[in-house]
Known about the structure:
Structural class: alpha/beta
Mean pLDDT: 79
Strand content: 15-25%
Number of strands: 21
Amino acid sequence: MGDNRIAVVVADDDPAVREALADLIDSHPDLELVGLAINHEQAVRAAVDHRPQVVIMDVHMPRGDAPGSVRAIRDQVPEARVVALSAHGERETVLNMLAVGASGYLVKGTPAEEILEAIIRAARDQFSMSAELLADCAEPLRRAERASWRFEDLVGNRLEDSYLELLGHAPCGVLVVGPRGRIEYANAHVRQMFGYGSAELRDKRLRDLVPERYRTASEQLIGRVFTTPSAMSGRRRDGSEFPAQFSGGHLQGRQPRGVVFIADLSQLRAAESRFRQLIESSPDAMLIVDTGGRIQAANHRTEALFGYDRDHLIGRAVEALLPDQPLTVSLREWDDSLEEPVGHSMELVGRRSDAKQFPADVSISPLRTEEGLLTVLTIRDITEVQRAQFVLERSLELLEVTDRDRQALLSHLVHAQEAERGRIAADIHDDTIQVITAASLRLQQLRRRLRDPDEQRVMDKLDETLKLSLSRLRQLIFDLRPSSLEHGCLAGALRGLLEQIRTETGVTYRLEDRLTAHPPAETMALIYRTAQEALVNVRKHAHAKTVHVQLLGLDDGCLVRIVDDGEGYNPLEVESRPGHLGLSLIQERAQIAGGWCRIESEPGSGTTVEFWVPLGTPPDAPLAAPDSPHSPEGDPQP
């Protein structure tokens, strides 16, 4: 090994990512690959055998856990520094890694140059973190004064210097503003964005970089712990303006200083054009709708599904295709919200040009443009799906005479459903994300060999597409398996679901957790899915302002009570409509665990859903062993 080269060990259980990282390190003149590992146990052994300066390690690998591996490496090889690399970016995981001594945390999909820079910085005992994690991991700063602890306790006394170094490598413009409101620091992105040199920016104010109409708004960004991003315009040195997004924060250190993040939105129109091409090539019907509910664009699949020419649809209200449903209410709430909107899906009823109706699965996604907030609707006819669901329900009714077999079948179905969710999430993480990460690394290696600017721009666009795919896949993993539920926190998983409903609909909530016993994993999953079905009904149909969720211990079991102040309904009338099987499914899921369910509602009086399940494995319908069914006996009654 050369005297000045940095020795590196790569640990990743995915062969494609591991080989791509190895090639990336070998291609750098200042780095030398000295070892490879495919699990946590091998990562510690390789660090002890080769005594590298840096170990770059996947967080989620078999045969051990990441925090334990970091501790073992730091204890046995004190000179080694660990840089975490993972497809997951949950704040809890990141902070746990930093707490045990990791020198950095990168999300898979990070550009190759940033990975190389993080390795070199770690060898210098400097800290690195992916920019997309920075705002989320800085969240504890907002609670610092209330909770009487400081973020420095997590990353050491080097927080201020490390934070400044991170800001310098951020992919957006960053300004640090001193106590007197003067600019003390500007990174390269800001200098390029506004056309100033470092000396010219020093001692300017933020208001000098925006047009007159935005000066008051710009001053309000400075000095706060965290602000929501605001769309404004920047003013370059030559007086020209460009669309930009500004957000402010607070840099905690020896003296109070503000930090302002600036993103150039000039490329937004090009992105919208590419997005419209994507919409046109979709196999599903897709619409672009404004906040007033007016259709702005439609693809050819919309014409085939609804029987209208797209020219006839432009400018019409979306209610013409999805009548008498609370869709535009959600769109207007997005427009008024100060927070970034989050997409979701709904089961609605579509109406074709011949007035025939069909059940539809509608995915609703926000699209922020220069003209304002638009919405992309993806619509799929689920007639066959509901027909299959109906046939399944009728088949289950026939099995009531053999309740023992029915209990075992339903228990197996729930077990299989959760297992399938976990399998899909694991497959996405262990296969798709890994392959895309490897492809991204290979692509970035290829880009470095190109000299033609046009070819480099094509590679940049392809790299952006891969990063977008990684981001969406990580969100899909979270949707399939909520991290709180996976870590055994039922209340945390329900709080995350309630927070999502609050963001989407404005419904406020109160969660009361008085459950002292810890449910088995499978029972906890069933409780969560059952409560999720009830809360989806609140979101879709109740038009409620508040919802109260209680977790109570009762008779060696868990009683879940969900009360909303919505408009209520007539159960006989609602349950007879197509597409309203949700309440029946709630009752079925409660019975799977040997419990019961009670639903009370009437027009104008809100709705109360209660269900109880035993916390232990019921002797008559063991959830953990669906291959050994028994008959239910003596179920508790409400």
